[in-house]
Amino acid sequence: MPHTSGEIFAPQSVEHYLGTLSLGLDHLADHLRAVSTPSTGSEVSSAAARVAEVDLDHPLGDVKSALAEMSEVYLDDAIWFHDPAYVAHLNCPIVIPALLAELYVSAVNSSLDT
Asked: What is the set of domains in the chain, with CATH numbers?
């Protein structure tokens, strides 16, 4: 039985998948190009207020709007552990081949417990 949602990852949705990931990669690349410090020093109360303003009852309707909102509540004040200026952490640096592998791991969605 064919699925009815274009959002479900399947052979029938490959073009939508490619377009969505392309938007996401471009968005992330633009953001990374602008990162100059490992953190912004944003106050917790300020970050919490932005998260509280997200209206989960009214979806944004398109990927670009969702990416913009995600930046406001997450990326803009994320701590970039990979930045050489960030020290004394336990997070290992990310290597690009691992990011490529994650693309496949998430798309295949293998159940590692079965």
From this structure: 12-80 (1.20.1650)
